[in-house]
Amino acid sequence: MPKKYFLSILLLIWVSTNSFAQLVLDNQDIYEAANSVNLNSPYHTTLSFFYNLEEGNYKPENAAKTLDLSDVESKNGERLAVKLKQIFEGKGILIRTNDIPNEQNYSDSTSAQDENIYYFDKKKLPGIFLKKTGESWKYSAFSVTQIDKLHSETYPFGTAKLLNILPKIGNEQYLGLHLWQLVGLFILLLLVFLAHWVFTLVVDKLILYLFKRYGYGKVGEDYILPVARVISFYLIVVLLSLFIRVLQLPIEIWSWIVIVFRTLKPFLITIIFYKLADVVAAYFTKLATKTESTLDDQLVPLMRKTLKAFVIIVGTLFILRDGLNLDIIPFLTGLSIGGVAIALAAQDTIKNFFGSVMIFIDKPFQVGDWITSGDIDGTVEEVGFRSTRIRTFRNSLMYVPNGKIADAVLDNHGLRQYRRFYTTLTVTYDTPPALIDEFVKGLREIVLAHPDTRKDMFHVYFNNLSSYSQDIMFYIFFEVPTWGEELRCRHEILVKIVKLANSIGVRFAFPTQTLHMESFPEKKTLVPEYSGGYEAKLNDFLQSELKRKND
């Protein structure tokens, strides 16, 4: 496989030797260019310019004749011509003779005034174009004035000086490349490895050391280090894109390298922001842990997913536009039109999404709350974009669309300040009224003595005569946060009630039918005998049961 790629590169280099720098042509083009400086059409001017700047036919004075030097000093013509060719090379602009108009009166139909001008590439080089002056086509006076500026932009940070230094190494050709180009490639690769080593040392050692020193070692290792590594790769790509253009590689290779570099830059930036989403999410996760609500704990993962989706979408658009040089306007237009159809087909999905937004805004419940609504009855486990997961008391998992929850009437048991406990205590009809009074007093003392009951709001009254019992309403509230705590309190209260009843002789009734018969001398009646002294018995219970707990 490596041999195959190597042979492909050699083939590209060999093909590139049959072209003029950025110009791809055939033998007929070479014949027409070799005759003389011809300025009759954009086609002939372009051939004359590149042909006279080739190594085998280097005549910069002839190439300067293709420039409109009316706004600059004519003595700078040769220098500007060479710089213009270097701009074409640095930008990686591939010009094909078949695409250049061979008409003396050619006019650009896209221009406002339908002028006699020709642009090589309006996106990459909007300021460089040919213009008909009199009967001759030349690089316009405006383009000539822009050459120095464009050259410094194409070769920034002093890299332009290397264009004059490297060729002095030697022009011998090996594998289709000059010796100075091969030496430059070797130096560039060496610099890449050196830069990678330096960045790795700085990122993995220095940054991680600083985070560990200030107590954020795990944060640095899990979140900051992955971002820093991608940034180091991005800086290496930037350095490569700056220096490799100095080598003036064959255009067939260089045009593809330019595309790769243009694509890598927005791609790596997208990865950087994708990983930064984890850093932002980690920060908000730390803030969410400081709040009492658990709903914001669910909001953080949703925010992280939303940020990542947004980064991917925006990054893809930049890769298509800046990297692959595609026009994304028709794509966005089609996407907006298709979005209407998608929105109509996905009404329920959109409804559920906005339902989740309303849940996070209104906060009708939070994770861990027990909610009830129709068939919904369970504890909230997770709130997602589309649905909410609810763990039922059968331990099954219920997925409820957020749109349905947003429109439903919810009973949130988890937001209760107090948990109500209501029951009816039934005592037999043979219980004397005085005993019932003492029993009710004892029940109220049980409520007041319990630490988790609401003391300012409870009702204990003898309030009903049913078909088989005398009924006492027992209506109280517990101040506890969970259902488990409520069950514990119920248990403690009911145990105290049973003990109270046993202590003072209260019998609980249940559905029965009683047949009363005349008592016999040798038999005792089944109806218990109440001897009185109920208040003393109650005091004994209060002292033995309730006061003992307070001691």
Structure overview:
- It is a multi-pass membrane protein.
- Residues 348-413 form the Mechanosensitive ion channel MscS domain.
- It is found in: Cell membrane.
- Residues 1-21 form the signal peptide.
- Keywords: Cell membrane, Membrane, Signal, Transmembrane, Transmembrane helix.
- With 551 residues, this protein is α+β, with helices and mostly antiparallel strands.
- The protein folds into four domains: 17-154, no CATH class; 177-340; 369-412, SH3 type barrels, CATH 2.30.30; 419-504, Alpha-Beta Plaits.
- The chain contains 18 helices and 15 strands.
- It has helices at 2-16, 27-35, 42-51, 60-63, 77-91, 141-145, 147-154, 162-165, 179-213, 217-243, 251-288, 295-323, 329-345, 347-362, 402-407, 433-449, 483-504, 534-550; strands at residues 23-24, 95-96, 117-121, 125-133, 136-139, 173-174, 177-178, 370-373, 376-383, 387-392, 397-401, 411-412, 419-427, 459-465, 470-478.
- A five-stranded antiparallel sheet has the order 11-10-9-8-12. It has a three-stranded antiparallel sheet with strand order 3-4-5. Strands 13-15-14 form a three-stranded antiparallel sheet.
- A hairpin with a 2-residue loop joins strand 6 (173-174) and strand 7 (177-178).
- Helix 2 (27-35) crosses helix 3 and helix 16 runs antiparallel to helix 17.
- The protein starts with a helix and ends with a helix.
